[in-house]
Design a protein that fits this description.
With 476 residues, this protein is an alpha+beta fold. It is built from 18 helices and 19 strands. Helix 9 runs antiparallel to helix 11. The protein binds flavin-adenine dinucleotide.
């Protein structure tokens, strides 16, 4: 049975981390309690910020002995309520653990504290002429530990893979305070169960990631970027395949955006100029990267887009001729999440289906949702190169926000059932957290759930780590 944080433990923890690592006053607590979707209310009254792995281990050992719940937290940018904490629980935020421990450009590896911001890791790699390719709109505030805990995807996963694919080794503090030192650089290590892969994507329920050894890549000499309009999602996939073939599989980003999502952006950013002139039902932002010198891929890129135009796969194309134009295109894409907010309530889905099923998913889910919620606006966008869409549903214009959001679960069920029927996943890259925990039993097999519960029980027997997240049944 979990216990609330008592005065004695509070004093011991405060003495352990010192004043620099203790946040207990309301004004300073608020950013750690805010939740991105505003669907959960965090009521914890203490955030602990350890300065090193040893302190994380001591915090967990003390909380484990006292049966006090610990909610690991990174940049608090997660979208599924994964780091929400209740009164009597302790938030452990890693922001003070933000050192790059080592970087080796020749071996192409970097070892970073888990509290390093994602952008910090990207910059450290760039300074030695390398690329750390994980990239998402929250990269200026999310932490590398949070990225691994959620197995983040982002815009470059189509070529470089998700966070899991970029990790070579981890250092993790287990629930009872033991430190698992797994900062390996090995590509091959078949010495039993893969603890690294168990921890990645576990959303703070199995351990606290304190450091990671990550893969770096050669920084591409050439990046070609284009904004395209396409008649429908099937044609978006056709142009993706065409560019993959023409560029020898060097498509590093492929984002699909519905007209509705672009309309929200142009309303939200009145100064924004679309790179293409005509209004179109679907937009694609696509990039190829690599090559031996700047401009190396340009002829291939242009020839493939010309062929796509002739084949009717695209209706218009604008190429980025400068870094500024490229940044402007990405600004439009990355503004979509924020641009939905002024449009009122939005019911979110983060789904993945086999690539070929994207057109069927969009057609079936759009029809089903507009039947369930007449007038609702489908704001579909996402990393289509991975089969991943953020299929978000904005309230009808002028509708009552609360009444619309009351349909959240019903709408999720309709969309998720279609996702399952097409062989997909209801949580592509954001995770389960608290938001989708209760939906999990409907979509995950009994065998998989039993294995998850058994793993949770074995590694966290008192259930102190992030109780209420991911695993559908809490442990006593
Ligand atoms: P937090 O939000 O603090 O925590 C997330 C989860 O990880 C929680 O369950 C927490 O308990 C756990 N956790 C955090 N740190 C640790 C640790 N050190 N050890 C163990 N557990 C830990 N996600 C994508 O995948 N792709 C995107 O393209 C994308 N775009 C986004 C765009 C915007 C504008 C925003 C706001 C979010 C976006 N996200 C995206 C979601 C979010 O940024 C990612 O999930 C990110 O990886 C979370 O990192 P964080 O440090 O903020 O973690």
């Amino acid at each position: 049975m979990l216990q609330p944080l008592n005065t004695e433990l509070r004093q011991r923890l405060r003495a352990l981390v010192g004043e620099a690592g203790w946040i207990g006053d309301a004004a300073r607590l608020s950013p750690y309690l805010a939740e991105q979707r505003a669907r959960f209310v965090s009521t914890a009254d203490v955030v602990i910020c350890p300065e090193n792995t040893e302190q994380v281990a001591q915090v967990l050992a003390l909380c484990h002995a006292a049966r006090v719940a610990v909610i690991p937290q990174g940049g608090n940018t997660g979208l599924v309520g994964g780091s929400v904490a209740q009164a009597g629980q302790v938030i452990v935020n890693l922001r003070r653990m933000n050192r790059i421990r080592a970087i080796d450009a020749r071996a192409r590896v970097i070892t970073a504290d888990a509290g390093c911001l994602l952008a910090q890791v990207q910059h450290a790699a760039a300074e030695v002429g390398c690329l750390f390719p994980l990239s998402l709109a929250a990269e200026g505030s999310c932490q590398i530990g949070g990225n691994l805990a959620t197995n983040a995807g982002g815009t470059n996963a189509v070529h470089y893979g998700v966070a899991r694919d970029l990790a070579l080794g981890l250092e993790v503090v287990l629930a009872d305070g033991q430190i698992w030192q797994g900062l390996s650089q090995l590509k091959k290590d078949n010495t039993g169960y893969d603890l690294r892969n168990l921890m990645i994507g576990s959303e703070g329920t199995l351990g606290i990631i304190t450091a990671a050894t990550l893969k770096l890549f050669a920084a591409p000499a050439d990046i070609q970027t284009a904004w395209l309009t396409v008649p429908d999602p099937a044609r978006a996939l056709a142009v993706l395949q065409r560019l993959q073939t023409a560029s020898d599989q060097r498509v590093t980003a492929c984002e699909l955006m519905s007209a509705q999502s672009i309309d929200f952006v142009t309303q939200y950013l009145p100064s924004a100029r679309l790179p293409v002139s005509a209004r179109a039902p679907w937009h694609v932002l696509i990039e190829v990267a690599g090559g031996s010198h700047s401009g190396a891929l340009k002829p291939v890129f242009e020839a493939a887009l010309t062929a796509a135009l002739e084949a009717g796969e695209i209706t218009d194309a604008a190429l980025a001729h400068s870094d500024a134009q490229r940044a402007q295109m990405w600004r439009l894409r990355k503004s979509i999440p924020a641009a939905q907010k002024p449009a009122g309530g939005s019911i979110k889905h983060d789904i993945c289906v086999p690539l070929a099923q994207i057109p069927a998913f969009i057609a079936r889910a759009s029809a089903a949702v507009t039947q369930l919620l007449p007038g609702a606006r489908v704001c579909a966008f996402g990393h289509v190169g991975d089969g991943n869409l953020h299929f978000n549903i904005s309230q009808p214009q002028g509708a009552d926000r609360a009444a619309f959001l009351a349909q959240w679960e019903a709408c999720n069920e309709v969309v998720h059932d279609i996702t399952r029927a097409l062989g997909g996943s209801i949580a592509a890259e954001h995770g389960i957290g608290r938001l989708k925990r209760d939906a999990l039993p409907r979509y995950k097999s009994a065998a998989a759930l039993a294995a998850m519960r058994a793993i949770k029980r074995a590694l966290d027997p008192h259930g102190i780590l992030n109780p209420g997240a991911v695993v559908p049944e809490d442990l006593e």
